Amino acid sequence: MRSDLMDVPIALGILHLFGGLLLNPMFSGAAMSLSSVSVLFNVLQFERL
Asked: Can you tell which superkingdom this protein's organism belongs to (predicted)?
């Protein structure tokens, strides 16, 4: 499962700082959405324990 440690920096533009790669805003939005979904799935897993 993906984690916020990877999605949030991508959405913030960390790739542009280190490699000059500039993402389309649509991909940044998708990264933030995946971040939110991963948090939701983690919460649901903890509820099952």
From this structure: Bacteria
Tens of pLDDT, residues 1-49: 556 677 677 767 777 788 787 778 898 788 788 888 888 888 898 877 7
Structure tokens at 35: 């971040």
pTM to 2 decimal places: 0.54
User: Total structural domains in the chain?
Assistant: 1
- Quote the domain boundaries for residue 35: 4-48
Q: Please report where in the chains the tokens 């500039």 appear, as a residue.
A: 22
Please provide residue 21's backbone torsions phi and psi, each rounded to the nearest 5 degrees: -85, 125
